[in-house]
Every structure is written in structure tokens, then in C-alpha cells.
Amino acid sequence: MKEITLKIPDKKIEFFLKLVEELGFEVSQEVDIPDEYKAIVRERIQKSVQEPERLLDWEKVKDDFKLD
User: Fold this and answer.
1) Per-residue pLDDT tens for 7-59?
2) How many Å apart are CA 50 and CA 43, to the nearest integer?
3) Cα(32)–Cα(42) distance, rounded to whole angstroms?
4) What is the pLDDT of residue 37?
5) Which among 33, 34, 25 is positioned nearest to 2, based on CA atoms?
6) Distance of CA 31 to the CA centre of its chain
7) Alpha helices in the chain (DSSP H)
8) Terminal Cα-to-Cα distance of the chain (whole angstroms)
9) CB 27 within 8 A of CB 21
10) Would you give the distance in Å from CA 3 to the centre of its chain?
């Protein structure tokens, strides 16, 4: 089986995925996350476990964001 990588414009991705599904092709949406990003997330998780008081309660801060 051949594997092809395509770059699809954001506006067309939903249409493209439906077309591919209709044609019966297998779709894989893999995201390659660099190791340095993974290390940053792991470090932040570790800090949050060690100092849970540094976290903010989402229910208290969500209205500070404009989520349109």
C-alpha cells in the first residue's frame, strides 16, 4: 500500500475528508509533535502536580476570555 502526504487548505479539509471517506480510502491524521514541545508539557505537568495551588480554576477565569 502506498502512503501519500497532502497539504489541504483549512477551508477545504472537511470536504476533502468526506470525499476520501466516500471513496473508501483509509485516512490517518497524525500529528508530529517535536520532542522539545513534549518536554515543555511534561515539565508543566510536573510543576502542576508539585504546586497545585499555582493553577487557576477554569470556572473562575473563563469569563475573562472572549470565546466567540
Assistant:
1) 999 999 999 989 988 999 887 777 789 999 999 999 999 999 999 998 999 88
2) 11
3) 16
4) 96
5) 25
6) 8
7) 13-22, 35-50, 58-61
8) 43
9) yes
10) 22
